[in-house]
Amino acid sequence: MKRKLFVAAVCVLAMAGLTACGGSSVSYDKYDLDEYIKVGEYKGLTVAGYKVEVTDDEIDTRIEQELEEAASSQEVAKGSPVKEGDTVNIDYVGKKDGKKFDGGSAEGYDLEIGSGSFIDGFEDGLIGKKIGDKVKLELTFPEDYGEASLAGQDVVFNVTINSATRMTVPEYDLDYVKNTTDYDSIAAYEKSVEKEIYKEKEAEEISNQQTELWSKVLEDTEVIQYPEKELDYYIQFNSDQMDDMAEQYGVSREDMLANYDFGSEEEFAAVNEDSSKLRVKQEMLIEYIADKEELKYTDEEAEEMIASFEQMGYDEEMVKSQTGHDMDSYVRIELLYQKVLEFLLDNAKIK
Question: Which segments within the chain are labelled E, that is strand?
């Protein structure tokens, strides 16, 4: 498993399904790619069709999720019983043999009932008790408790339930639909949920088709020779990334390699070379098809992608430090990749 994580470790940003590490110095503009790769047929390939269905259960589940997300925390009235899931504010004092023990007392502590934060019996002992009650809990610490002086010992907790809050899920009815959605009827709202799920499932199926076609074209592409500059850049970049991670975690390079199940520098070098060759092959193939078919992307598409990266916290500096690419070159390869995937599917035969 760790070995599989290696690629992700040396290239943190793997967006749009393509691991596009490398630097802004990596460019194939000056190459005649016909001298570097021999590309098989990529138009008219056959791919399986798909059928999308949305069930009533899926619609119900999505609505339940939305209701839970809309839940709000409300104060539980004084005198009301505590329920599992409530967050109670308590004062408690723990005693062993009539004497307080270290770490056994607190005031104004917020405890979620059912979280398992306290020893067995503590949270269950508060369920059904009322807000404002004083509760006496006679409990026993587990035999394997971390504090030896308490392991297996009988104790007493005196607990005061000061208050409680409860997450309240809104009732699913016409008022909810009218107040929280753009629809005036339950039927119209559920139809919109169905369409949303349908679009998600359809997008997933289309992505699977594109990935299958890309894999076929990649497999059917022969590398005649690798451009040394680009290949060497990737190899060095990946090695530098390993050093950076070692420094970040305060360990040696040898320890970092071992963490990813590399027994030696030689073993790492072999995997590094193979993964770097794969990246170069992918990028040459993308550039080749994009050039042959005159695939372009718009400035608006580039701006949208940059904005989406920045929204996720990936600014220019982070993108470069994580991938070696500047923002523009990273966006270029990602958008061209998307265009190639779309072209392959548009020109495929659906069986």
Answer: 37-38, 46-47, 72-75, 87-96, 99-112, 134-140, 154-168, 222-223, 349-350
